[in-house]
């Protein structure tokens, strides 16, 4: 599926071979164990357990891995709207961190795994058809839409971009290949939101162009950044430094950027005795108070964290009716007896401040959308939260005549399950939880869809529509072309940014 989300930059935990092996990530370990056979012939006719995974990002791959490692002879077909796999690992990770890309080929190398790309579920292939041909379906397609601020000027001024669109553009996401952001209108930039994605954007805007040239950032994006006039980036949040959602690693990397300095934060925004804080909060506080390694006199660019501000309007310049020139914010105050509590809430005041900027990015969260046909097979969707209702372990809820229950064989994983929160490691744990529920249900004889022949039965339906499906071998051909294109530029790869160009490789 194309529904991508911006990932908090973390190393993607490597997967072991699909054999009985010990596996460990951090403090979490899976004991070595023999794949277990389902004791009841739920599938019928002696056929293996077949599972469809919708989405080829971390949630999909981790769920597939765990199920394949525990259910003997399980067959997994992974459907993806784009011709290329890996979802946000390919399109949402900061380009100057190549270590977090392309970690799931071990799963895909299994003979019991099929990648089926360039298939738009709900359009090219109906969910009802999938239900008839699989024992289980896992919805793992992420969050495809960003949240808007809903303030004056957001819809009609030039120079305003969503974090998802901007990061997708410089990472080669076809949906945003033609975004063409203007980074040369002025020297000021504002990022609204204080999560890790916001810091990714700030770092990329401030990063030395020679460093970006060596990443897998698209050449089109490199050319745009080389012409950027941005010298000052302000990352703005509603609450204070003790409530911000960015993490130590992201802040540290910004502090260490060559020729970039950080504007000091008022000491009054920190607890008087930081040593009394929990370890993580204390380390983050110390890092913010220490500031950048570059002295102001040696800096070419600067960045700042501005707190307790809520945006109220985007403003046009006096000489242009539609070019962004500034943002107005309402100042906030803490509504909590402990202003340094991580859960402290704020409210707006009548006092405002206007900050100059020629380009702005909103990074305030993302949401998933329902796939066409969900309602037809009884799958609900919470449009308010942008998630599929579930029991917390991935079993999808539905309402029945006798009350709420779970749908046999229907599961969800990742951000469409819990909302767009966490880093890749937490997505892994979440996906493993869903996989454990699937394995438990299968082994204990819980009801599943009767199943069928999976992709083997459905490929004819796709061919009749003259839709070109993309296999894992096809992806490897696209991958080889991208890497060859990158070699001439001394980089890992030069991504193909148009779907039609990806498919031309296969002609």
Question: How would you concisely characterize the structure shown here?
Answer:
The chain has 507 residues and is α/β, with parallel strands linked by helices. Helix content is 27%, strand content 20%. It contains 15 helices and 19 strands.
In quaternary terms, these chains amount to single chain
In the predicted model, the low-confidence regions spanning at least 5 consecutive residues are 2-11, 17-45
Pairing-aware structural class of the strands and helices?
alpha/beta
Total helical elements? 15
Strand line-up in the sheet with most strands: 5-4-3-6-19-18
Q: Cα distance, first to last residue?
A: 23 Å
Coarse morphology: globular
Helix content: 25-40%
Total beta strands? 19
The major β-sheet equals:
6 strands, mixed
β-sheet strand percentage: 15-25%
The residue-averaged pLDDT reads 88
Q: Taking Cα atoms only, what radius of gyration do you get, to the nearest Å? A: 24 Å
If you had to describe this structure to a student in words, what would you say it looks like?
The protein contains 15 helices and 19 strands. It has 507 residues and is of the alpha/beta class. The longest helix is centred in the last third of the chain and has 20 residues, at 424-443. It is globular. It starts with 22 loop residues before the first strand and ends with a helix.
């Amino acid at each position: 599926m194309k529904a991508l989300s911006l990932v908090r930059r973390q190393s993607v935990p490597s997967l072991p071979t699909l054999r009985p092996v010990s596996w460990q990530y951090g403090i979490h370990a899976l004991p070595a164990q023999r794949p277990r056979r389902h004791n009841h012939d739920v599938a019928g006719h002696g056929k293996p357990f077949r599972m469809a995974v919708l989405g080829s990002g971390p949630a999909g791959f981790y769920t597939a891995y765990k199920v394949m490692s525990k259910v003997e002879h399980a067959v997994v077909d992974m459907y993806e709207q784009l011709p290329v796999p890996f979802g946000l690992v390919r399109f949402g990770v900061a380009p100057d961190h190549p270590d977090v890309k392309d970690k799931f080929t071990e799963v895909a190398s299994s003979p019991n795994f099929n990648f089926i790309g360039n298939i738009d579920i709900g359009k090219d292939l109906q969910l009802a058809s999938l239900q008839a041909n699989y024992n289980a379906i896992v919805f793992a397609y992420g969050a495809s839409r960003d949240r808007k601020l809903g303030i004056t000027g957001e819809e009609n001024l030039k120079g305003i971009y969503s974090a998802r669109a901007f990061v997708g553009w410089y990472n080669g996401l076809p949906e945003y290949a033609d975004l063409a952001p203007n980074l040369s209108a002025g020297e000021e930039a504002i990022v609204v939101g204080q999560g890790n994605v916001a810091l990714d954007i700030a770092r990329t805007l401030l990063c030395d162009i020679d460093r970006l040239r060596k990443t897998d950032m698209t050449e089109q994006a490199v050319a745009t950044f080389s012409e950027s006039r941005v010298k000052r980036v302000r990352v703005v949040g509603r609450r204070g430094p003790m409530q911000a959602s960015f993490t130590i690693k992201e802040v540290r990397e910004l502090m260490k950027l060559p020729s970039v300095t950080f504007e000091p934060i008022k000491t009054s925004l920190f607890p008087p005795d930081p040593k009394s804080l929990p370890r993580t909060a204390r380390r983050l506080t110390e890092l913010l108070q220490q500031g950048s390694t570059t002295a102001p006199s040696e800096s070419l660019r600067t960045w700042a964290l501005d707190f307790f501000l809520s945006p109220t309007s985007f403003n046009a310049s006096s000489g242009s009716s539609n070019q962004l020139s500034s943002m107005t914010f309402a100042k906030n105050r803490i509504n909590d007896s402990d202003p340094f509590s991580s859960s402290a809430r704020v409210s707006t005041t009548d006092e405002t401040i206007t900050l100059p900027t020629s380009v702005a990015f909103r990074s305030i969260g993302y949401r998933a959308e329902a796939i066409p046909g969900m309602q037809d097979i009884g799958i609900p969707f919470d449009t308010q939260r942008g998630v599929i209702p579930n029991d917390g372990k991935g079993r999808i809820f539905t309402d029945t005549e006798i009350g709420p229950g779970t749908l046999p064989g229907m599961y969800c994983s990742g951000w469409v399950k819990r909302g767009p929160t966490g880093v890749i490691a937490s997505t892994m744990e979440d996906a493993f939880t869903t996989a454990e529920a699937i394995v438990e249900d299968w082994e204990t004889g819980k009801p599943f869809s009767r199943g069928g022949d999976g992709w083997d039965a459905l490929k004819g339906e796709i061919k009749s529509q003259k839709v070109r499906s993309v296999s894992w071998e096809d992806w490897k051909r696209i991958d080889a072309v991208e890497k060859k294109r990158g070699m001439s530029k001394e980089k890992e790869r030069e991504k193909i940014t148009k779907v039609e160009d990806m498919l031309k490789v296969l002609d």
